[in-house]
Each structure stands twice: as structure tokens, then as C-alpha cells.
Input
Amino acid sequence: MDLESHEKAENKVLLLFFFNRVKIPVSNMQLTRIMLENRFMNYFLLQQSISEMQQDRLILTETKDNIDYYSISDEGLKMLDMFVNLVPLGIRKRLDENIETIRHAMRLEASVVAEYTLENEHEYQVKCRIVEDFNPLIDIRLSVGSRDDARSICKNWKAHAKEVYPEVIGVLLGKDKDNSGNEQSEQS
Output
């Protein structure tokens, strides 16, 4: 096996190892970020490996909300069992040691979504969501007049969604936490 073929095989087995350990569907964006941040492989080799693994049915692809999520298939598990030793022990150990942190970050990342699109020359649509097990807990769509506003809303939603959600639910249920203070000021 030449060096290039060996590297391709190692990359594919590394991805199978990762999918098997993480045990949750992984988006292309998440996978790309993890592989590049950890310097496991470069972007082009990653995308080529994913494409070839899909064709060979080593990974499953599930599309939800226009996002592809990957997970290991039964064929991929068989391939991993046969070739797991292609992945260097140090990389396997590093992944095993950090998999809980990675999984937690991926779940949090997948659960808070904010994006914007240009609707027309002077209007952007902002979509802010919290998703749990692929079911939306809250889905807010806003129209704003500038890209800066859209970016700011997305940034702040990602930073504060877990705080905003209970506030919105409380207000909608009529359980305003300042009710006791408001009653006193109304009586004055």
C-alpha cells in the first residue's frame, strides 16, 4: 500500500473510530471543526473521506433541517473492528480521554441554533432555536433591517439562549418573576 492510500485508509478508520465513540449524530460542520482543531486531518481529505465513506455505506447520513448528520453504519463497525489498529494509539487515547467533553459541546452546539438570511435589499430574517433531541423547544423568527443587527442577534442568542428560554416561557405562562415587586409598586 502506497503512502497516500495508507493515509486515506487511516483517515477513514479515524472517522469511524470517532463516530463509534461519540455515539451521537455529527453534523459536517461539527466534524470539520473537531478534526481541524485537533489537527487530525485537513479539510479536503476530510470531505473526500466523508464522500467515499457515504458511497461505501460505512457511514449513515440523516438530514434534518437541511443539515446532514453522520453516524457509523453496521458496515462501518465491521470495517472499524478489522482496521482499528491503523489509527495511532496516541490519537485513540486522546479521543477517548476527551470524548465526553466533545459530546457535551456538540450537544450544546446542536441545541442552540442561530442563523440569518438576506430576504431582500433591506431585510434579514433571523432564526433562533433551541433544539432537544431534534425537536424544537423554541423557534423564533425575526425580521431586521441590517446585517449587523442580524449578526448581533445570532451572537447574543448563542450566548444567552439558555437564559432567555425560561424567561420567555415564564412570561408566556403569566409567571412574571417580578409580579410581587410590581404589586407593591402598584399599591403605592
